[in-house]
Amino acid sequence: MPRGPVPGVWQIGRVTQGQGESTASGRADHRGLPPVAGGALLAAAVVLTALNLRPAVTAVAPLLGSMQADLGVSATWAGVLTTLPTLCFAGAGLLAPRLAARLGLGRTISAALVALTLGLLARTVDGPHLVLAATLVACAGIALANVLLPVVIKASFPARVGLMTGVYTAALQGGGALGSAVTPALEEPLGGWPGALASWAAVSALALLLWWPAARRHGHSWAEALTPVRGGRSLLRNRLAWTVTLFFGFQSALAYIAMGWLPQVFIDSGVDKTTAGLLVGVTSLVGVPIALVVAPLAARSRAQSGWIAGLCGAGLTGAVGLTVAPAAQPLLWSLLLGVGLGVFALAVAVIALRTRTPEDTAQLSGMAQGLGYLIASAGPFLFGLLHDATDGWTVPWLLFLLIYAAQVTFGVLAGRPRYV
Prior knowledge:
The protein is 74% helix and 1% strand. It is mainly α. The chain has a single domain, classed as Growth Hormone, Chain: A. It has a two-stranded antiparallel sheet. The longest helix has 30 residues, at 239-268. The chain is globular, with a radius of gyration of 21 Å.
């Protein structure tokens, strides 16, 4: 296939053997920096920032019933609210590189944290339209940081990319768990759902205070590490690229349906609000050991299809239990579903494993995240729409199972040892 310009794609520290490439011993990266060039301050800033990239989403779900009752809105409005994060993530894949090229990587992530903090605070003001607008601002900040933090890891921790990526992913999952588990307990002492949601602004402000000095120390090295790729082939006609994209998209759809609606499913089944939040926190927390242990083991295997099928099988069992009898064994269903949703770490890993060059990795990542999150955005909205139309949870869960079947199919295909 002929090569042509592919704008907006990044090449991160492209080097060749003999030009200072990081080796297995990890003595230096291509700029002659030590293996942990980012330093402890930057590592801490990355982890704390990552902790903020899920609570703004997962904190909403346990309070969704209170928000609907207080604001007088329908389940369709709630579906729009739970869809906003995925729409923002879809757009961030295109916008983030251009903003970082103009403002710099450090400043763009700083701006993302400012947007997140302001959006969280703005949700304290009543009004369904303002809540949607403030959520959009907060999620836009999350989306930018979500795309750019892996670039920071690649550029600043060249000999520890696997370790830092695992820690970063674990921090994402841990933050999501905290958002679900802690927020319901804050509702009463903070005077209702607005105060409980706004409390997370303190955590994002703390991340900004830590991020700013760390970014100032490393801005120059990031500028050198990021260079635009002028040429490359399009993957839009590549079957494997679409397979990976659909796997990522369907996986994300399931995750955001669970984050957005699972607490309300438990509450409507007779589980109290605090317990429902804790159960969804368990679902997110299960992903931490999977990201730190299972994903690296799977990445070392020639094929990842078996690992993907195994995780998805456990999750499918949990999803069937939630469809048939959600209140019968809520902890077991949450654990099993969490194992299935832990396949997110493998959905990220196969992007790199199915490519041979940095250019193809960057292109496939942009395609999988941009189009994948666009596909995923329909999931939470349709789930809420079906609940609104049927006044029950059976039909929405049947949609969930249908998406799950598609995820397993494309996940097994994406896990086979081939290259785009």
